TrEMBL record:
Gene3D superfamilies: 1.10.20.110, Aspartate Aminotransferase, domain 1, Type I PLP-dependent aspartate aminotransferase-like (Major domain). Belongs to the class-I pyridoxal-phosphate-dependent aminotransferase family. It is an enzyme of class 2 (transferase). Its cofactor is pyridoxal 5'-phosphate. Its EC number is 2.6.1.-. GO terms for molecular function: aspartate 4-decarboxylase activity; L-aspartate:2-oxoglutarate aminotransferase activity. Residues 169-508 form the Aminotransferase class I/classII large domain. SUPFAM superfamilies: PLP-dependent transferases. Transmembrane segments: none annotated. This is Aminotransferase. NCBIfam families: asp_4_decarbox, PRK09275.1. It holds the Pfam family Aminotran_1_2.
């Protein structure tokens, strides 16, 4: 194994390299493969799924009322009149069913807390489950937006005051949100080849890989976190954003893969700069892991004018297969101002692009252009996330809103943090969980770990041989453990990302022991003087 050269794989996307590591682990390891490379959680919220199924049965019964005189299996659009009473009669048949209990609580909650009409709410949910009408509005269903907006405010604003109204666009997961944002920025002349995009690194690898693509050809500026200071931004790195040539700043908060949220001090420094010196800066904050943090506050709350917020329901609720995400944008925002400030020739081209949608293209907001561009403009009338997906998203959001005693959130946090402690224990190091640590992932800094275990000469030897990729292949082949390279997330040191969400605690103990074993073997090579 030590004579093989894996350098050809060093520049692959970490998610492509993962497939090669899995192939090695499956074919050559004598142990069961343990894939801690991808962040798909092995936990999920059950109550909103039970509610989805119970609501589905009721919705089908409602559809069957319309044409009950025809052959079985032929239904129609549900009727609003009397629906709430019919639902109560249906629910009475299952008084102790968890799904029914959840739905009854949801109907009560939206009326009492959000001032939504019960009949309108349940009609939207029934139609959404049946998928019997187009998504209207295509950006997001009316009541779904109200509910998810309340959930986003709860999770993203923390103790910060809510800073003005904002709109949501429901998307096919956070990845679709990223795609749509870059496309619409380009289509509207807000970014162009040669422009600078700043990335808060380390960062989720697609943010590194999208800007250099030929259709964008943007220059990347690293705004680097300091590993020795809980992965916060030093003041000199934040100061880089003063460069007016930087058009967009992308940030994952809490970070991926270090899994640390911005500290209060760092958040204030960053916000102060944006709110004073860079009122023209477009900020994209990806806050999917914010729900696992303590007392989380997003840049969406502290820099409302500048910030597009991307949130996905995939991790916290275990819903990666549902593909549920949103883009949030305040009504008063830098993007609409930037559209208004475009040169006349560019505006003329955009008038032509969006002329089939409105006679007032200048008044078409950026968030509505996102919707149109997601369907190549011409298909804007059939845009929008499928209504069953929007229904499940709404129920998940209600699960978060109605978790009044924090039981679900506490369980999710405890699970991943206890796994982290187990992993560290088996590697022979002390766990580091500070006030800003989240622990959805952890980053094993192999050089730092090597130095901690065996001293600086070994760490220098490890780094000089660029053994990070070798370590990953050796770990996969000898133990069946699959990790992702930190290099693919723009981590400077040789490192490996471990997802703490997708395996059992016993398996994380195995990963810790296996990692230590391979490092022990490398140390023996170092002592023997082998090249």
């Amino acid at each position: 194994m030590q004579d093989e050269d894996f350098s050809e794989f060093a520049d692959l996307s970490p998610f492509e390299l993962k497939d090669k590591l899995i192939a090695v682990a499956r074919t050559e390891s004598q142990k069961v493969m343990l894939n801690a490379g991808r962040g798909n959680p092995n936990f999920l919220a059950t109550q909103p799924r039970r509610a989805f199924l119970r609501l589905g049965e009721f919705a089908v019964l409602e559809a069957e009322r319309s044409y009950s005189y025809l052959n079985s299996g032929f239904g129609g659009l549900p009727e609003k009149d009397g629906m709430i009473e019919r639902f109560e009669a249906y629910a009475g048949r299952f008084p102790d069913d968890p799904g029914i209990t959840f739905l009854r609580a949801a109907i009560s909650f939206v009326r009492d807390q959000l001032e939504l009409e019960r009949e309108d709410f349940i009609l939207e949910m029934v139609q959404a489950f049946l998928g019997c009408v187009y998504p209207v509005p295509p950006r997001m269903l009316e009541h779904a937006e109200e509910i998810v907006s309340a959930y986003i405010a709860q999770e993203m604003f923390g103790k910060a005051p809510k800073s003005g109204p904002y709109k949501l666009f429901a998307t096919e997961g956070g990845t679709a949100a990223m795609t749509y944002i870059f496309q619409t920025l380009k289509n509207n002349g807000l970014i162009a080849p040669g422009d600078k995009v700043a990335l808060g690194t380390p960062i989720f690898s697609p943010y590194l890989e999208i800007p250099p693509l030929p259709e964008y050809a943007m220059d990347v500026v690293d705004i680097r976190m300091d590993e020795d200071n809980d992965w916060q931004f030093p003041q000199e790195e934040i100061a880089k954003l003063e460069d007016p040539a930087i058009k967009v700043f992308c940030l994952v908060n809490p970070s991926n893969p270090p899994s640390y949220k911005l500290s209060d001090a760092c958040l204030k420094q960053l916000s102060d700069l944006i709110n004073t010196k860079r009122r023209d800066l477009i900020v994209v904050t990806d806050d999917v892991y914010g729900t696992f943090a303590d007392d989380f506050v997003s840049l969406f709350a502290t820099c409302p004018y500048n910030t597009l917020c991307v949130y996905s329901f995939s991790k916290y609720f275990g819903a990666t297969g549902w593909r549920l995400g949103v883009i949030a944008l305040h009504e008063d925002n830098v993007l609409d101002q930037a559209l208004a400030d475009l040169p006349k020739p560019v505006k003329a081209g955009l008038d032509q692009r969006y002329s089939s949608l409105t006679t007032d293209v200048a008044g078409l907001r950026f968030i509505d252009r996102l919707v149109a561009d997601s369907r190549a403009v011409a298909l804007n009338h059939t845009a929008g996330l499928s209504t069953p997906q929007q229904l499940q998203m709404t129920l998940l959001a209600l699960n978060g809103l109605m978790d009044l005693d924090g039981t679900y959130k506490a369980a999710a946090k405890h699970l991943i943090r206890h796994r982290y402690r187990t992993l560290c224990q088996e590697m022979g190091i002390e766990p580091r969980i500070g006030p800003n640590g989240v622990n959805y992932y952890t980053l094993i800094d192999l050089q730092q770990l090597g130095e901690e275990l065996y001293g600086k000469p070994f760490a220098k030897w490890f780094a000089s041989g660029d053994r990070g990729t070798d370590f990953l292949f050796r770990l996969a082949r000898e133990t069946g453990v699959v990790l992702l390279p930190g290099k693919g997330f723009e981590v400077v040191d040789s490192s490996a990302r471990v997802s703490l969400a997708n395996l059992t605690e016993a398996e994380y103990a195995d990963i810790g022991a296996f990692t230590r074993r391979v490092l022990d073997e490398l140390y023996q090579e170092f002592k023997s003087g082998k090249k």
